[in-house]
């Protein structure tokens, strides 16, 4: 009888264990599958009966973070940390850095390190990376630049650059398809933007290599508007990461770009470098622009328009999913840092309250309107003649800057690249004909093939020009 009671008790215990194990395993599976709402529901049911369960609290916090509910994730993660769940400390450290709480981050990093040591586990690379990031953020917070925000815009992330209203002197920002057909931009993606200075002397853009890493490339623009040989800009500029969003100042020396490499605070950061014209266009070691330009989020495409006295940069901090915030600011000749004891220092770094950056009594709406070019794409000065396109309305376009429609401008640049390929094909074909004239009749088949390719390129060029005209008239 006693043995029977023991057997029943053991069975009941095993059933109780399985009833708890099954739900947590199911919740973990849902989390791994990205089904966060379902996982959260299951985890909260488990925590009703076991509120201190470290694993359940950790996965609840992780799922809430995945859903963007970072504030709600803090309590369960701290409970998991108290139960010795090392990964909870890791997530809490990341959250603290995202919120500029360096001291809190360091405490969680130390707790994570201690938990790993207690469990006799080796320290992952992410731990040292977080430690370095905390040091970097601390240093940046001591040198927050005082900038004057004139305006802020919330725009779609896919075509944010269209909101940059630059004067002609500042050059052009072009979408990536502007160079794809030049044979140099095949690795370009939607946000691999290209930049062309006012003098139309070169094009700079980003594209991926065969391993998927993005680097900056440049090509000189020939007198006929076509692209010369492509050169890869120093790959080391990216610090082991990706390099995108180039902008070259009118001096032809100062280059701004974004990178997510080892010197980035988080995501993409904005960097500045200068070209050494005495060493075949080599660039100096880039410098992180610091705060408030950079943040633990993605920050990119800094452009300074000296003609209008306005600067622009984009960031996904303080933004809804699928949106970015563009800050328009008034650049100063010299960098002035905020007082490290300023009680508003964190807000100045985050730019979560732009009124703190502004002067009293200034009408910033009027200031902005007075500085913005009336028509940024039409103020081309001394632009070289690249082509002559009859628009059919009494106007003849002779430069990319003549196109007011961004897509039309991009289509015309594609046509220019096709024209370059056509010219090279004609040159090759003429060489074949010369060989035939000299008695090498075995090239006759090549001549026929070349004629077909030449016809194809002519039709493609005509089609692209017509497409550019059509887009301009939309």
Low confidence ranges: 1-20, 377-385
Spatial order of strands in the largest sheet: 2-3-4-5-6
Give the DSSP E fraction (strand runs of 2 or more residues). Answer: 15-25%
**What is the number of beta strands?**
16
What's the number of helices? 12
Main sheet attributes: strand count, strand direction, barrel closure: 5 strands, antiparallel
Helix content: 40-55%
What value does the average pLDDT take?
85
Order of helices and strands: HHHHHHHEEHEEEEEEEEEEEEHHEEHH
Defining traits:
alpha+beta; five-stranded antiparallel beta sheet; disordered N terminus; 474 residues; 16 strands
Task: Kindly describe this structure.
By secondary structure, this protein is α+β, with helices and mostly antiparallel strands. The protein is 42% helix and 18% strand. The protein has 12 helices and 16 strands. The chain has helices at 2-32, 36-49, 54-66, 70-82, 86-98, 102-118, 125-141, 177-180, 345-350, 364-371, 406-437, 444-473; strands at 148-156, 172-174, 194-196, 202-208, 214-221, 227-232, 243-248, 254-259, 269-276, 282-283, 287-288, 299-305, 310-315, 323-330, 389-390, 396-397. Strands 2-3-4-5-6 form a 5-stranded antiparallel β-sheet. A hairpin with a 5-residue loop joins strand 5 (214-221) and strand 6 (227-232). The longest helix has 32 residues, at 406-437. Mean pLDDT is 85; it is low at 1-20 and 377-385.
